[in-house]
Amino acid sequence: MTETNVDVLIVGAGISGIGAACHLTRDGRGQSYLILERRHAIGGTWDLFRYPGIRSDSDMSTFGFNFRPWTASKVLADGPSIREYVEATANEYRVYDNIRFGQYVQHASWSSATGRWTVRARNDATGEIDTYIARFLLGCTGYYNYDEGYRPRFPGEERFTGPILHPQHWPEDLDYTGKRVVVIGSGATAVTLVPAMAPTAGHVTMLQRSPTYIVALPAIDKIAAWMRKFLPEMAVYRLSRIRNIGIQRLSYALSRRYPNFMRKVVVAGARRHLGPDYDLRHFTPKYNPWDQRLCVVPDGDLFRVIRDGKADVVTDSIEAFTETGIKLASGQELQADIIVAATGLQIQMLGGATVDIDGEPLRLNEVLTYESVLIETVPNAAMIFGYTNASWTLKADIAAQYAVRLLNYLDEHGYQQVVARAQPGDHGSDSVLGSLESGYVIRGNAHMPRQGTKAPWIVLNNYIRDAQTLKRARFDDGLLHFSRPRPTLVKDSGAATATRPAT
């Protein structure tokens, strides 16, 4: 068993964790840091998921880091390209030197007496428990279970003679050439899988219990390509971000204020791609736009394979699996050689680790988040969350910058600890993802932190307002409580100080 001391311990080497490390390098005051990553590669989601066609569901000018431009031409990038972008960013900022791979964080314990976190992680290589001591803890694990997705049991599924897959664990050797494939689901994964598999498979059917709003975006950003002829890459990137942030905010605001109008706009878009004779009930949800996350498809690829007859959509409920497919409530039977259960995610906070504060177990579903970054009653800790109604990285970037700014404030004033404390009446009942009615949000409600009744305890999901708040907010607001003195930290040789990238 080893023990390592460090200023900042980051849990997770996905896009949030790598971004946080880079912000610490760019804006920190020389604080040492380490990243603990359970897997043996960086990238998080983009390393885990390997199903056909995996891609971003947000445009890359807003999904990329705010400090490093995305220079490729695709609006919605494929998974390998995103992984390469994250890896290149980590290399540029020398993050790899500060990552410990194969470290499965199991428990984090805060001691007010020492002003330190003690984090225990199982070492994959040795099977032993390694211990890390840190001043500040940054949770960058996302909010879903990496071990298993949501996989409901279907009546009679043991009778089906073919493979039943979940996209989260896609077999590398699966050959679906000429096969009949049924994809159960209508979310981002399903609308990606169907057009990716359709050219090779014999036929693909997307089986949905209820429709999803689907919007076609251009595959290539032609305006950005034109601007590159005249402007530096970072200027093009920033202008594209401003434009797309504005479009995202306008779309969301109109959807919340004028849902019927936006429903007609989105459904009319599907009509343009599918033709006048297509039954649009398959693309007309009963809920309002942005009650659940909209799905986007580059150049309408999903609509195209449906129009060309390589795929179709069936809206029905499953009665039972059969030996050769799925029998539906309507009596129809879908023939299948392969069934893909694109049925969603399972919520899991902090990668499944448990937490205690001075010996008292932390129950995340009983505490609020402060500015959607800090955790009520939890000293010297932050959780980096992205947006649900816009690109994840937009929020992850400014949340990480806020955490670094807070760390600098602690050092400048000689403080040892900071903790956010709510006032009576601040607590609300919604979770931090309460703005969505998606299945995974409803299923995971009991595992997530709450949000309060007013700022700074509510989740705004508004980048423009959040950016102003997190970049400029004062820390002496009476809700953040600081204590001193800070004991001198003896830094271990296993933790490198954040250094700027070579120029």
Report on the architecture of this protein.
The chain has 503 residues and is α/β, with parallel strands linked by helices. The protein folds into 2 domains: 3-147 and 346-497, FAD/NAD(P)-binding domain (3-Layer(bba) Sandwich); 157-341, FAD/NAD(P)-binding domain. It contains 12 helices and 26 strands. Strands 1, 2, 3, 4, 5, 6, 17, 18, 21 and 26 form a 10-stranded mixed beta sheet that branches. A 5-stranded parallel beta sheet has the order 7-16-8-9-12. Strands 13-14-15 form a 3-stranded antiparallel beta sheet, with no helix packed on it. α7 (233-257) crosses α8 (259-274).
Terminal-residue CA separation: 38 Å
Number of helices, where a helix is a run of at least 4 consecutive DSSP H or I residues: 12
How much strand?
15-25%
User: What is the total domain count?
Assistant: 2
The CATH architecture classification of the largest domain is 3-Layer(bba) Sandwich
Q: Helix share of residues?
A: 25-40%
Q: List how many beta strands DSSP finds.
A: 26
The CATH homologous superfamily name of the largest domain equals FAD/NAD(P)-binding domain
Instruction: Give Rg in angstroms.
Output: 24 Å
What is the SS-derived class?
A: alpha/beta
Tell me about the largest β-sheet: 10 strands, mixed
